[in-house]
Design brief:
By secondary structure, the protein is an alpha+beta fold. It has 9 helices and 18 strands. The structure holds zinc ion.
């Protein structure tokens, strides 16, 4: 089976992530793809294979004992931001023309400049009504294709394949059965441009702001009412506006307001705070706490409550302690004569959490673009290139 055939098979499974659940993955339908992958891996005669109640698979293959065991990871779920039901993928040879999808949606270089990299390539697009699911079924197809080829060779390294669920709602790493993991490090195959190698991700915190107001009839409110929502809006506008997500890029940090609701009596806002640097994210957190404290002083009581929680960390802190990983990437890409560049991900990956749980994981691209929506497409030639990279990494 080619990587494209596998890809088309995997996207036929609806695996949209939902609300997080305690006992199993967020949507039972996801388990049907986990089951399919379990069968496919089993047919390759693994040394051990296990699936846990969240549908997370850990599968090991024996290899040359003198080489280090390395893990390859991808996730079966797709983003809840767009429908993943009845995906109708279409293969198009891209020659620079506009690609018209349903509902008048147009995939063009004007809107998506990176499409020019696909010139002369075959790309798989959506009907325009769903996402494609290349995030991360491209990763699964690449791993399965490379694995099948490499297992027929002598001398490959001992391998571990981990397919996770619920990555899109941030719940995948914590559902990995870490007691089963034997690899020294791993590679997540999950993302865009096939030339990108990521050893850096955001450090992430969430910030909830709750405001207790004092509601008085508006007619007699003067000097008595403390309007919770107005106070919250004041708090929000006191944070530096040039540090909003929509004004930042590259290595710049931000505060991002996710939701805001309220009445005179109560108000609530949810934020995320992102940075690449631990000291910097601490400063942003301190500034928000300081702002709330000053406002509470002025209003005369503890009206604003700020709660900041850690979500994940920049994996570079851990990956810097494993120079062998970067040396391996250099060796493999060099051997294949391929260019690559390090990209700092303005987001998190499974590796942002797993790296701190004992499995350091850089991320490699898959050739999947515009993920999480109807303009998603996957570049077949880039997927094929990544099969070669993953095969070489599996050989060790
Ligand atoms: Zn992904």
């Amino acid at each position: 089976m080619t990587v494209t055939e596998r890809f088309l098979k995997y996207v036929s499974y609806e695996t949209t992530a939902g609300e997080e659940k305690e006992k199993s993955c967020s949507d039972e339908k996801m388990l049907r793809l986990s089951d399919e992958l379990l069968q496919e891996l089993f047919a390759l005669h693994p040394e051990s294979i296990a699936i846990n109640r969240y549908g997370v698979i850990d599968c090991k293959f024996s290899g040359d004992e003198k080489k280090k065991r390395v893990a390859f990871l991808a996730h079966v779920d797709t983003s809840p931001q767009a429908s993943g039901k009845d995906i109708q993928p279409k293969i198009v040879r891209y020659e620079g023309e506009k690609i018209v999808l349903k509902d008048g949606k147009v995939l063009s270089e004007e809107a998506f400049p990176h499409l020019k990299n696909a010139l002369g390539h075959d790309i798989i697009v959506t009907s325009g009504e769903t996402l494609l699911g290349g995030d991360d079924k491209a990763g699964i197809a690449i791993i399965m294709t490379a694995l099948k080829d490499v297992l027929s060779e002598e001398g490959h390294r001992p391998l571990e394949i981990i397919f996770t669920t619920d990555e899109e709602i941030g719940a995948d790493a914590k559902h990995v059965s870490m007691e089963l993991v034997e690899s020294e490090y791993g590679y997540t195959i999950d993302g865009g441009d096939d030339r990108f190698v990521s050893i850096e991700s955001f450090t992430a915190r969430s910030m909830d702001v709750m405001v207790d107001g004092k509601s008085i009839h508006p007619g007699s409110a003067k000097d008595k009412m403390v309007h919770a929502t107005n106070l919250l809006v004041d708090f929000h506008t006191s944070l530096p506006r040039y540090l909003r997500a929509e004004h930042t890029e590259k290595k710049e940090p931000f505060y991002h307001l996710c939701s805001l609701s309220g009445t005179e009596e109560k108000a609530k806002a949810e934020y995320i705070i992102r940075s690449f640097d631990e000291d910097e994210i601490q400063k942003l957190s301190d500034l928000a706490l300081f702002t709330a404290a000053r406002m509470n002083e002025l209003v005369g009581y503890e009206a604003i409550h700020v709660s900041i929680k850690e979500q994940y960390h920049n994996m570079k802190t851990v990956l810097d302690k494993y120079p062998a990983i970067q040396e391996e990437i250099k060796r493999v890409y060099g051997k294949l004569g391929r260019k690559y560049e390090y990209e700092a991900i303005r987001g998190g990956t499974t590796g942002s959490q797993l790296s701190f749980m004992g499995l350091p994981c850089p991320n490699l691209g898959t050739g999947d673009y515009n993920c999480h929506g109807p303009y998603e497409y996957v570049d077949i030639q880039e997927m094929e290139e990544m099969v070669l990279v993953v095969k070489e990494l599996m050989r060790g």
